[in-house]
Design a protein that fits this description.
The longest helix has 19 residues. The chain is of the alpha+beta class. It is globular and about 85 Å long. The strands form five sheets. A five-stranded antiparallel sheet has the order 4-7-9-8-11, sandwiched between helices. A four-stranded antiparallel sheet has the order 2-1-3-10.
Length: 497
């Protein structure tokens, strides 16, 4: 594997191409200007002692890459040394961040734990996040998974360090919290933009550079993992004393704001329109009404979005993937673009009917469709094995095992199939039944299968469940793994960035 290209995907032009001094390959007329710095360490002990090097160019990284064990994949404004011997680098504090290139998850298993197959990380990411990891590294005590951004989120005066810090940290924490539901050994609170293992030829288990997503994608996803998800939107019609999200004070504040702009790493124009559209959706407002009002808002902005982009945002809000606008993001947007001193009393009305908090399931007479879907997936997980990832039975037997009514079972099964979470095939008549498998169980078998039999396995799935070959490829194929002394590094001067 070409490590130079691996590093380029992660660092995203955050460093100079050539060393500032003593370059062996720098063109005579090269004038790159100032860029950022990263930090490297040759052993874990050195990292713990704070002994390392400052690297400010891709050339310098290339000269040292096989001798390093750890690095900082996110780029800082500058680096220097605290000692005259140039052994102890300083500058890798969050306040000095220049650009965020990747989120990462450290999976550190206890000493007596058996390592699971790294394919489980891919499955957990697919299942919990809907995003694929760009890279998984093998470590002595577990793994590290990286979710590289399509383009970096820059930390500048314009984007406001405090905003990017809060938003990016929230995304990072949500990624870890979600993966921790399926994977052991994840420290949710460890340094979000600090030191990680460096990719090497001997530790890369999984790498696919096309699996990158925008910071905006991650912000939109993170909205759905808010603590406000503990509450559900009231499904019944508008009542006399009910306060819908559209009736909240923050809606008028945002609708009358003309200061909204778009900027990488900030909850700005796109997020405001998305959040307002969620309020319209949660308040049962027709999509046409939402579209009219969002276009009117957009027209008042100094730098408006294209109408096609407005419609895309609204369609996403009305896609049934989301329940309501998150209070955390409402606060963030209003504090950023309206007034940082706004209190909750100035943003929100008393929630009479906006939210009703869910009772424990055992206290409710009826379960929700999502809960039946989860019950079906849990049943399939308990009945599936790596080399028998399907269940063959009758609908009646499965319903009785789970305890779900017939119509609810059929509706939940249909939804699971539509969202590519299960494949199933019904055989009617005497001796008939249903063959059903969770996509997750099938994926686990694909990942663990030998390369030479995978295509045959795809064909078997296609025939067994009567699904188009291209659909099988689309759902599954993306999960397959792709497969000295230090030079002194010239430093970037303080404050560059």
């Amino acid at each position: 594997m070409d490590l130079t290209s691996v590093y380029a995907v992660i660092l995203k032009n955050g460093l100079r191409k050539y060393k500032y001094k003593n370059s062996k390959i720098k063109p005579i007329d090269s004038n790159e200007g100032n860029k950022g710095a990263i930090f490297g360490y040759r052993t874990k002990d050195h990292m713990k002692q704070g002994r390392g090097i400052v690297i400010t160019s891709e050339e310098g990284l290339s000269e040292n890459m096989d001798q390093l064990t750890h690095w900082t994949p996110n780029v800082f404004c500058f680096g220097t040394y605290s000692d005259s011997g140039r052994q102890f680098p300083i500058g890798h504090e969050e306040e000095n961040l220049r650009q965020i290139n990747t989120f990462f998850v450290d999976i550190d298993l206890p000493g007596n734990s058996t390592k699971f197959n790294h394919g489980e990380i891919v499955l957990a990411a697919y299942d919990r996040l809907g995003f694929m990891p760009t890279m998984i590294l093998d470590t002595p005590n577990g793994y590290q998974a990286f979710f590289v951004l399509k383009s970096p989120a820059y930390v500048t005066k314009k984007t406001n360090y405090k905003v990017i810090d809060r938003v990016a940290k929230k995304i990072s924490k949500n990624i870890r919290k979600e993966l921790a539901k399926d994977l052991p050994g994840i420290d949710v609170n460890c340094n979000h933009f600090g030191i990680t293992r460096i990719p090497r030829t001997d530790n890369i288990l999984f790498h696919e550079e096309s699996y990158t997503y925008t910071f905006q994608d991650w912000m939109n996803w993170s909205m759905t993992i808010s603590e406000d998800k503990k509450a559900e939107v009231i499904p019944f019609p508008h009542q006399k004393n009910e306060i819908r999200q559209l009736d909240e004070k923050w809606v008028d504040l945002l609708m009358n704001s003309e200061k909204l702009i778009g900027s990488k790493g900030v909850l700005g124009r796109n997020n405001a329109i998305f959040t307002l559209s969620l309020a319209y959706y949660a308040s049962k407002s027709p999509i046409e009404t939402c579209e009219y009002n969002m276009i009117m808002l957009n027209d008042r902005l100094k730098n408006p979005l294209k109408e096609s982009e407005i419609k895309r945002i609204i369609n996403s809000a009305y896609s049934s993937k989301y329940e309501a606008a998150s209070k955390d993001y409402i606060r963030e947007i209003c504090h950023t673009w309206i007034d940082s001193s706004l209190t909750d009393d100035q943003l929100f009305s008393q929630p009479k009917g906006w939210y009703k908090f869910k009772k424990d399931r055992k206290e409710r007479v009826r379960s929700h469709s999502k809960e039946w879907q989860q019950d079906i997936l849990a049943y399939l997980a308990s009945q599936s094995y790596t080399y028998k990832p399907f269940v063959y039975s009758t609908k009646k037997e499965i319903r009785e095992e789970i305890g779900v009514p017939e119509r609810s079972f059929d509706a939940a099964l249909k939804k699971l199939k539509e969202t590519n979470q299960v494949f199933y095939r019904v055989t009617r008549g005497r001796g008939g039944g249903i063959m059903i498998a969770s996509v997750k169980a099938l994926m686990r078998t694909v990942i663990l299968a030998k390369k030479e039999v995978r295509e045959a396995y795809f064909e078997a799935i296609r025939e067994a469940f009567l699904v188009p070959g291209m659909l099988v490829q689309k759902v599954f194929y993306q999960l397959l793994p792709a497969k000295t002394d230090y030079e002194e590094i010239e430093l970037i001067s303080s404050g560059v960035g």
